[in-house]
Design a protein that fits this description.
- This protein is mainly α.
- The protein has one domain.
- The chain is about 75% helix and about 5% strand.
- The chain is built from 6 helices and 2 strands, in the order E-E-H-H-H-H-H-H.
- The chain has a two-stranded antiparallel ribbon with strand order 1-2.
- The longest helix has 30 residues, at about 110-140.
- InterPro entries: DUF2231_TM.
- It comes from Spectribacter hydrogenoxidans.
Length: about 160
């Protein structure tokens, strides 16, 4: 069984907070940059997106490795489907932000590219929010990981 921990702390749940915080701040900074025509806010948003994409890739890699553990995620179990839904939504969020990075730079873009970038950022934020909801269901619902743990440990 592959358990990714550092001193007893699971790595995936520890990492996921970084892209969530970074992308949330990025969306707010970019929206404010476009509303107030503020180049510094745009640059800040760009770097927040970039860091979020990096941390998102690390979080995704550790999540996929944990998902590969079929004792925790038996195929066709509710936990498997919840985890897979979480992964799909978070991958969609990551792709929105990665595409945005490919379109823009740290300098404020034209109004058209800026609007597209903000649209990608807000879409990524919505996907991330729904993906986080799916993770919450996985961890806290009676059919999620708790049920899988009980099935395998007889509690």
């Amino acid at each position: 069984m592959l358990r990714l921990h550092i001193q007893g702390v699971p790595i995936h749940p520890a990492l996921v907070h970084f892209p969530v915080a970074l992308w949330s701040l990025a969306a707010a900074a970019q929206a404010a940059a476009l509303v107030f025509d503020h180049a510094g806010l745009w640059a800040m948003g760009y770097w927040l997106v970039l860091l979020g994409v990096i941390f998102g890739a690390l979080a995704a890699a550790t999540g996929v490795l944990e998902f590969a553990d079929r004792r925790r995620f038996p195929r066709h179990s509710p936990a498997f489907h919840m985890a897979f839904a979480h992964m799909r939504w978070m991958a969609a969020a990551w792709n929105c932000f990665a595409i945005e990075l490919a379109l823009v730079q740290a300098q404020p873009p034209s109004s058209t590219i800026g609007a597209i970038a903000l649209g990608l950022s807000l879409t990524g934020f919505a996907c991330m929010t729904w993906g986080a909801h799916q993770a919450g269901r996985l961890v806290h619902s009676p059919q999620g990981l708790h049920a899988t743990y009980q099935d395998h440990h007889g509690h």
